[in-house]
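Subject: for your reference before the review

Hello V.,

The reviewers asked for a structural picture of the protein, and I figured it would be easier to keep everything in one thread rather than splitting it across files. Below is the amino acid sequence we used in the manuscript, unchanged from the supplementary table.
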Amino acid sequence: MAHPSSAAASPLADHLRRLLPGIALALAVAIAATLVTPLAALVAPIPSMVIALLIGIALNGPASRPVFEPGLTWCVKKLLRIAIALLGLRIALLDIWDLGPATALLVLVSMAATLVSGVWFAKALGLDVGYGALAGAATAVCGASATLATSSVVPAYPRKGADVTFTVVAANAVSTLVMVLYPPLCKALGFDPQTTGILLGATIHDMAQVVGSGYAVSEAVGNTAVIVKLFRVFLLLPVVVAIGWWFVRREGRAGEAKVPPPVFALVFLALCLVNSLMPALPGLMPAYAPVKAFLSGASNWGLLVAIAALGLGTSIRTILGTGWRHIAVFAGTTLVLLALVVTGLLVLP
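And here is what came back from the structure prediction:
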């Protein structure tokens, strides 16, 4: 007769065995990126996160085998959030306060306008407004997570399943592209580190690329970008409720929203609070400092592995196989968001 603990451990062991190939592949890409980075620096200062992303995309073909899918998904969905939550140890609450109400207002206005533009572009190009809502939410809030949450309140239409899939892939692909393009744009516009962080956090769709883009520039830029992005993440629930309400008013039917709480964001803020209070407790600093150093290092590696997994799961061919109108809508919402944020940052005092 099997011992109860053995029976309980078996499903866990099976689950870990399913995750191991994908995690090992992403870790191998992350290690390769750290080894290649010093060599790449001889030609151009390319950050290890960008190199991990590019290596991952190059290996998308073999990485598409089913054996890797569970582990890669875990890295992008779970490991990424753990690593982001640990970033809270680098940031004090005063940093959030320093962003000011003008930044919050800029993010709110640009998000609302982006949502409206998604619906308008879809209508103008003869697509279902449901896709416009999906594209608008993915661009305005947080990419794939916002797409899946919004799909729960968008009424059924013939292409809904395909549109949800395309929007998730497009959010990853476009975020990956702008992750590389937006930092040079900020430099060309003469933005300082805080303004650069605001732009990256307010315009890039997915959290992974916000982190990769921001910290590839500098820690200060990355910290600001993550704070602004988390503000957008916290707005996911009201955005989805508003979209559902609009469809109820428009068509009298909408699904029930099932929006997962942003637990990682709450942990991030809790760790920000801990980091903010520690200077006032000098007696605890000797014990806190090594713990903070270890968790910060774990966060760095977690982010690198998650970025590698993101690249391994990104297929350019899938994006190019979709109709031009879908691509045009998503590109339109992306450009609207960028234009509004850049304009706002240029006129803000």
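For the response letter, the relevant points are probably these. The mean pLDDT is 84. Residues 4-40 form the longest helix (37 residues).

Happy to draft the paragraph if you're swamped.

O.
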